[in-house]
Structures are given as structure tokens and as C-alpha cells.
Amino acid sequence: MAQGKRLICASADLVEAGKGFRFRVDHKGREAEAFAVRFGGRVFGYINECGHIPVRLDWLPGEFFDDSKLYLICSVHGALYAPETGRCLGGRCQGKGLAVLAVDEADGQVFLVKENTHG
């Protein structure tokens, strides 16, 4: 494993626009739940909190996509987010996107690039 990276899951655990993989990180000095999903053939990572208020996004454990499989959706408010950027696309997020985590995929594994995020 490369220095400064932490293993999240195997690449095979993330199916295109399918179930996400949840894990925990240090975020802004506190332990927080996070998740990784695959969309457009790439892996993206976010803190598992709606941009509106800090509630979990997934409507069932690991279920982050809406019915169309095109957007991430907040289980409480129905706010929609772009899976490739975390940007708020509509709903009660009112322009507040998801907190992005740096992730990398190599050799059949998905890694968190840095543990302590500040953004």
C-alpha cells in the first residue's frame, strides 16, 4: 500500500451506479461516516451527510442512488447530488454540496488518499 493511503475496499465491491461502500474517517476533527460509489467507470468518495443538515444520505445501508441511478439522493429530503462531483443539483441542499474525499483506485483496490480532511 502506498504511503498516505488507506485501503477502503476491493474495486469489485463497487458496481457501476450500484450499492456504495460505507467506511469511517476523521473529518474536521471528528469521526464521521463516509462512502464510496462507482459512477461513469470511476470511484468517488464523500462524507455521508446531506448538504442541508447532517443526516445520512443512504436510504438503506449503502443505497445512495435514486431510482434512475443517475443521482445521489438524500434519504430524508430527497435532495439530489451529482455522483461525480457531489454538487447539489436540487432540493433542500440549497447549493450546498457533499464533502468530497480524495480516493484512488489501483491494482483492484480502492484507497482513501488522505485520512484527515479539512473541507
TrEMBL record:
InterPro entries: Rieske_2Fe-2S, Rieske_2Fe-2S_sf. It holds the Pfam family Rieske. Residues 6-112 form the Rieske domain. The keyword Iron applies. SUPFAM superfamilies: ISP domain. GO terms for molecular function: 2 iron, 2 sulfur cluster binding; metal ion binding. Signal peptide: none annotated. Keywords: 2Fe-2S, Iron, Iron-sulfur, Metal-binding. PANTHER family: PTHR40261, RIESKE DOMAIN-CONTAINING PROTEIN (PTHR40261:SF1). This is Rieske 2Fe-2S domain-containing protein. It comes from Candidatus Dechloromonas phosphorivorans.
